[in-house]
Amino acid sequence: MKEMKTVVVTGASSGIGKATAIYLAQNGYKVYGAARRVDKMQELRAFGIKPMVLDVAKDESIVACVEQILKEAGSIDVLINNAGSGYYGALEDMPMSDAKYQLEVNVFGVARLIQLVLPAMRKNNYGKIVNISSVGGKVTLPMGAWYHASKFAIEGLSDALRKEVKSFGIDVIVIEPGGTKSDMIGLGAEYMTRVSGNTTYSTLAKGVSNMYAAVEKDAADPIVIAKLIKKGIEATNPKTRYVGASGAKLMLFFRKILSDKLFDRMIMSQMK
After folding, report:
1. SS3 267
2. Owning domain of residue 58
3. Residue 1 pLDDT more than 60?
4. Which of 7, 10, 246, 254 sits between 20 and 30 A of 226, alpha carbons compared?
5. Can 147 be counted among the known catalytic residues?
């Protein structure tokens, strides 16, 4: 009988994290769903998923979560770093405390989780580390300086890590979703309106909000990304990156063929 792999999915209370936790549980994985709000994960129990309290901005929470799972399950075979913060706003307007929080969640929390799961993965000579980046880890929108900085960082972190751990039987996989239905789109737009809606950047903020609304309307169901993740973790020799959901491949294609200035012009033409 095939051994059941243990998977940890962060940010499992909604969106991509929730869809991925359920989909993997339905496909024979032992899944731990981790998020700050355990009350929003109670329905996951019906799928055999164990909810765990995890605040990726707090080291003691990260350590306690990983230690408990390792104690119960014996190993963590697959780590899916999905928890994220999506604050948007003009760099001039955003408080540095919010910028630091975004990096804490999107970069340092991810790195700390990886640090803690690697010893057991190395011991087993097996592991899959899946980092959820974004098309925004390759292309940028105005008002997204800190969000894009965090996702560009995840891309670089993953590329370096992949080389470090390959000899231990550990794969590092980056997922780059495009427009996907989630709470983050709405929350990011609300935050942007609050910090930049009445400043020098108000016209641009309105343009980005309108574009956000269009993206939300055409956003893909998170199951699209859940299926990509399953494909990646089950591949014998996985790709370094998987791209999916609304507009993702087209956007990356334009970024590849256009110069910086032409690409800037194309993006800014959408800000109306």
Report:
1. helix
2. 6-268
3. no
4. 254
5. yes
Concerning whether 13 is annotated as a catalytic residue, the answer is yes
pLDDT of 82 reads 96
Asked whether residue 176 is domain-assigned, the answer is: yes
- Could you tell me the pLDDT band of residue 42, with boundaries at 50, 70 and 90? very high
Could you tell me if 76 and 70 are in contact, meaning their C-beta atoms sit under 8 angstroms apart? yes
Instruction: Report if residue 40 sits inside a domain.
Output: yes
Indicate yes or no: pTM above 0.85.
yes
Question: Which one is catalytic: 133, 158, 182, 196?
Answer: 133
CATH number at residue 253: 3.40.50.720
Number of domains composing the chain: 1
Question: Is 1 among the domain residues?
Answer: no
Question: Residue 7 in contact with residue 32, Cβ under 8 Å?
Answer: yes
Look at residue 245 and tell me if it is in a domain. yes
- Of the residues 18, 30, 128, 151, only one is catalytic, namely 151
- 132 CB burial (10 A radius; 0-12, 13-18, 19+): buried
Choice among 23, 87, 147, 242 that is catalytic: 147
